[in-house]
Design a protein that fits this description.
By secondary structure, the protein is an alpha/beta fold. It is built from 15 helices and 21 strands. It folds into three domains: 6-70 and 167-329, Phosphoenolpyruvate-binding domains (TIM Barrel, Alpha-Beta Barrel), CATH 3.20.20.60; 82-157, PK beta-barrel domain-like (M1 Pyruvate Kinase, Domain 3), CATH 2.40.33; 348-473, Pyruvate kinase, C-terminal domain (Pyruvate Kinase, Chain: A, domain 1, 3-Layer(aba) Sandwich).
Length: 478
């Protein structure tokens, strides 16, 4: 059984060579994430080249996801690159990114926090360090509630408070320009607050699909409008788990995935999925359960971050993720997720065609569902109905071919241009026979738009007997 849930792996120092990236692809990486919060443009461009070489070597489509830093709230710097905070210490808080003097901490965007006052809590280092505002009479003074070592430029959050963040920074603009020139396939927009923030990123992406990262409470409240605007949503559980009550995070994760899927968009679950494998050869039982539950929730993809970027066992982490997903997908309930779903925000006609095609495969026991797509939208719609059949998505567009690697259950294939839909269907059937995916005479459900090559809306479902030399397997079109 082929794995349907896709695996995103973050590239970094632990895999910064051609051989390591090749082994990640061989182990099952479907999407390579380039984290533009770290590294140089030259580093990312080299990694992208290695991904392309590995994809060609292993005969697999692999997408490249550019993750921009966004307006992340961070502390400034310290004279020795870190300070140690103990419970009961008092510190002065200032807005900015400067180097702090003794007893001070600079926090970027502190001056943009609305209604900050005594008793409010500031979380640092993903919540491992906590400060409470003590007074604001002569500057902002805070008391350390939970101490620890705080290093340069680590993250900060203001749970329950609104922060007026810019949609995009100068660094993001520069990174997006560089990413477009490199040829990235997807962009992840960090710290969006609403659909307008997604549009601001989209205006700079040169038609590259945008994934909105849900990291803020305000973004969760605006989820429906974000789903309508974005091409997908990532449940970024690190920062989101700091802003929300940690106990609410599992419920919120399920809700985000369900609403994103109902909107016909890509859903990604991320952060600390196999965190212990940064240093351990085996995952914890809790981590295995976490990954499996994300699959049960209906996520399109699961993501590895530090596990592959800086961890001791990057390839092993992908192998483990692969095994967990495959095992979770044996659950019969998985394919019932979308049984009664009508994709809410998709055009009604293509969505109805997609649902009908999936129902045909289910009712007739057909195991292969092929589609023809220029943008990838038809393949994405089919995947949202979670068919048990394999989805083979044919395209003559190379960027689309790579992007579809991140779609649940989709196996992208390149195909040449054909003047008629019948010729396209016959050629696709022959290609499936040639690669051993089907036997001559086997039936495949074909989904297409008529006429081809003209951006036609998906409007055809056909049961095709492959190898017959005729579309539909008879002289008449099915």
């Amino acid at each position: 059984m082929r794995r349907k849930t896709k695996i995103i792996a973050t590239l970094g120092p632990a895999v910064a060579n051609a051989d390591a990236i090749s082994r990640l692809v061989e182990a099952g990486m479907d999407v390579a994430r380039l984290n533009f919060s770290h590294g140089t443009h030259e580093d990312h461009e080299q990694n992208l080249r290695w991904v392309g070489e590995a994809s060609e070597k292993h005969g697999r489509s692999v997408a490249v996801l550019q993750d921009i830093q966004g307006p992340k709230i961070r502390v400034g710097t310290f004279p020795d690159s870190a300070i140690t905070l103990s419970a009961g210490d008092e510190v002065s808080l200032l807005s900015g990114e400067d180097e702090a003097a003794r007893g001070e901490i600079f926090i970027k965007y502190l001056d943009r926090v609305a209604n900050l006052g005594p008793g409010d809590v500031i979380q640092l280092l993903d919540g491992r360090i906590s400060l409470e505002i003590a007074s604001m009479e002569t500057g902002i003074r805070a008391t350390v509630i939970q101490g620890g070592q705080l290093s340069d430029r680590q993250g900060a959050a203001f749970p329950g408070l609104e922060v007026d963040l810019p949609a995009i920074t100068d660094k993001d603009r520069d990174d997006l320009r560089a990413g477009a020139e490199m040829g990235v396939d997807l962009v992840a927009a960090s710290f969006v607050g609403n659909a307008g923030d997604v549009r601001s990123v989209r205006e700079l992406t040169d038609d590259i699909p945008v994934i909105a990262k849900l990291e803020r409470t305000v973004a969760y409240r605006a989820l429906d409008e974000i789903v309508r605007e974005a091409d997908g949503v990532m449940v970024a559980r690190g920062d989101l788990g700091v802003e929300l009550s940690w106990a609410a995070l599992p419920r919120v994760q399920k809700d985000i995935i369900a609403r994103t899927n109902a909107g016909g968009k890509i859903s990604i679950t991320a952060t600390e999925m196999l965190e212990s494998m940064k240093g351990s050869f085996r995952p914890t039982r809790a981590e295995v359960t976490d990954v499996a539950n994300a699959v049960f929730d209906g996520t399109d993809a699961v993501m590895l971050s530090a596990e592959t970027a800086i961890g001791k066992y990057p390839v092993r982490s992908v192998e483990v993720m692969n095994v967990i997903c495959r095992e979770a997908e044996k659950s019969p309930e998985l394919h019932l997720i979308a049984e009664d779903t009508f994709i809410a925000h998709a055009a009604r006609f293509p969505s109805a065609i997609a649902k009908a095609a999936v129902e045909v495969t289910h009712n007739l026991g057909i195991t292969n569902l092929a589609c023809f797509t220029e943008t990838g939208s038809t393949a994405r719609l089919l995947s949202k109905y979670r068919p048990a059949a394999d989805i083979i998505a044919f395209t003559n567009n190379e960027p689309t071919f790579r992007r579809m690697a991140g779609y649940w259950g989709v196996r992208p294939r390149l195909i040449g241009r054909h003047e008629t839909t019948d010729d396209l269907i016959i050629a696709a059937g022959d290609a499936l026979i040639a690669e051993g995916a089907v036997e001559p005479g086997e039936h495949v459900v074909m989904v297409a738009g008529i006429p081809p090559n003209q951006g036609a809306q998906t409007n055809l479902v056909q049961i095709h007997r492959v190898g017959s030399g005729m579309a539909g397997g008879s002289a008449r079109r099915g």
